[in-house]
Amino acid sequence: FYHYVTAATPEEAIQQADFFYSLIEGKSFNCYPAMDFESFPGLNKEEINAVASAYLKTLADRLGSTPVIYSNTYNAANTWDPGLASYPLWVAEYGVTQPENLGPWENWVGFQYSDTGQISGIRGNVDLDYFQDGIFMRSEGNDPGTGDDADSETGVDPDVSYTVKAGDSLWAIANSHKM
């Protein structure tokens, strides 16, 4: 799950985090939920980071685990305060094989490399992403912030390629690859 945040104040951010949590509470999910906050009309950098911090802290408190930040590379490098790098990063940058500037993050758990993918059975463009083990919720001990590949612990090949088909879910794909 990810939530597109439109808050302009920390108070609105808390309300939006509570709303998002109310939508996913009690549902089964295998990936850490993400904050998608990418439009900040009229806000300065300090205000943007205050909103993001309030949202992420509230959501983390409700979830009992660490949410993920979805961001493009420009905002990762130029907008987000280094303190937010304690949250895992799902980064978008198109036309490259690896994201080029993660700002204060050392690694990513998700990399969206295209928004113009074509999938048989799905009309229109779809996003295309790579995910590392750190995006998947497995156990209390799994730290989503590490971005470490799983092969040393589980033998899972982090470079598995799979073509998504109509009706697939991220959980089913991960489960079929024992991720």
Which secondary structure elements does this structure contain, and how are they paired or packed?
Layout: E1 2-4, H1 10-24, E2 34-36, H2 45-63, E3 68-72, H3 73-78, E4 89-92, E5 110-117, E6 126-131, H4 151-154, H5 170-176
Parallel strand pairs: 1-2, 2-3, 3-4, 4-5
Antiparallel strand pairs: 5-6
Protein model, in words:
The chain is an alpha/beta fold. It has five helices and six strands, in the order E-H-E-H-E-H-E-E-E-H-H. It has helices spanning 10-24, 45-63, 73-78, 151-154, 170-176; strands at 2-4, 34-36, 68-72, 89-92, 110-117, 126-131. Helix 1 (10-24) links the parallel strand 1 and strand 2 (34-36). Helix 1 (10-24) packs parallel to helix 2.
**Percent of sequence in beta strands:** 15-25%
**What is the typical, i.e. mean, pLDDT?**
86
Low-confidence stretches: 139-156
Specify Rg, calculated over alpha carbons.
Answer: 16 Å
Helicity, as a percent range: 25-40%
What is the string of SSEs from the N terminus onward?
EHEHEHEEEHH
Q: What is the 3D shape?
A: globular
Distance between the termini: 18 Å
Number of DSSP strand runs:
6
Count of alpha/pi helices: 5
Biggest sheet overview: 6 strands, mixed
Structural class given helices, strands, pairing? Answer: alpha/beta
- Going across the biggest sheet, name each strand in turn: 1-2-3-4-5-6
